[in-house]
Specification:
This protein has about 300 residues and is mainly beta. The chain has two helices and 14 strands.
Length: about 300
């Protein structure tokens, strides 16, 4: 690069993986999440669906990961992975960003720590994990009016996923995530501001279907959705003319959406004309868990060539 180009250049994404011992690996990434690092250290090769995302990489909101780290140690057939990431919550609903009154995207700090255990049982691979998410100014990515004085939230996610190679070139996978979130209390946010959320996915895949190196996969999934709970607010509910003061009480504001997004996607990818091709057919019901939005369906295709 010339001196002028070097000044203007910036790294969009980077990843480094190293083996520090016969049974131990570490990985660092810039502008990438920790979930991809853990999957790479585990050696898992799962299909990359465009629309129907995996639950273990879903926290309910868009993220801008600035830095992530992962480490894994193998104990026989069992592996232990520890990961951490620092980034920001993108506080805007993607399906409504075009009609949003916000003129700029808000990035609010969010950190996550994950511990995962994985093991192979013959043709079955299984993993259990737990992660803690800390938000400084948001509640599962949501920004509230400054008058509520929200000081952030903490979330615990419990994960379970597995893959079964039940026949040559065939795989069946399933994943589940349960989330429990607590808003940090303050002058207006009272104790009991809790949310329970869940996400799941089931997929079936076939490798080397039409030619060596290609694959066909079908996935049905539900992105992370709040199932119960809300904000418990300490609000004035009356006024005493004797004391000339308002009466305060806790009022629960439910945050459960009326819609439930369910995604279905059929994806083929493989080598084509000295390059790599991908074709996806997808359908989304209640995008973003908004019951009033029309269902989303479409086709996506791409072709790439390395040189």
């Amino acid at each position: 690069l010339s001196p002028e180009q070097a000044v203007q250049a910036r790294v969009l994404a980077a990843r480094a993986v190293a083996r520090v011992a016969p049974n131990s690996k570490i990985a660092f990434a810039f502008s990438q999440g920790a979930d991809g690092l853990v999957a790479q250290l585990q050696g898992h090769h799962q299909p990359a669906f465009l629309i129907a995302r995996a639950p273990v990489d879903d926290v309910g909101f868009g993220r801008n990961q600035s830095f992530s780290f992962a480490a894994r140690h193998q104990f026989g057939k069992t592996g232990l992975s520890i990961a951490a990431e620092h980034g920001s919550a993108i506080s805007a609903a993607p399906v409504l960003s075009g009609a949003s009154s916000l003129r700029r995207t808000r990035f609010n700090p969010a950190d996550r720590i994950t511990v995962t255990l994985d093991r192979e049982f013959g043709p079955v691979q299984a993993a259990l994990g737990a992660s803690w998410l800390g938000e400084r100014q948001t509640y599962l990515g949501a920004v509230f009016n400054q008058g509520l004085a929200l000081s952030g939230a903490d979330s615990l996610f419990l994960d379970a996923n597995g893959e079964w190679r039940f026949a040559p070139d065939w795989r069946l996978g399933a994943a589940w995530r349960s989330g429990y979130s607590w808003a940090r209390t303050g002058e207006t946010i009272a104790a009991g501001s809790r949310l329970r959320s869940s996400a799941w996915a089931v997929d079936l895949g076939r490798e080397d279907l039409f030619k060596p190196g290609d694959s066909l996969g079908l996935r049905v999934s539900q992105p992370l959705r709040v199932e119960s709970g809300g904000l418990n607010l300490n609000l004035p509910v009356g006024y005493s003319y004797e004391t000339l003061r308002p009466t305060f009480d806790n009022v629960l504001v439910p945050l459960v959406p009326r819609g439930r997004e369910v995604d279905a996607e059929l994806l083929w990818q493989g080598p084509l004309y000295s390059g790599s091709a991908m074709v996806s057919l997808f359908y989304r019901r209640d995008p973003g868990h908004f019951a009033d939005l029309p269902d989303d369906k479409g086709v996506a295709a791409s072709w790439s060539w390395r040189f």
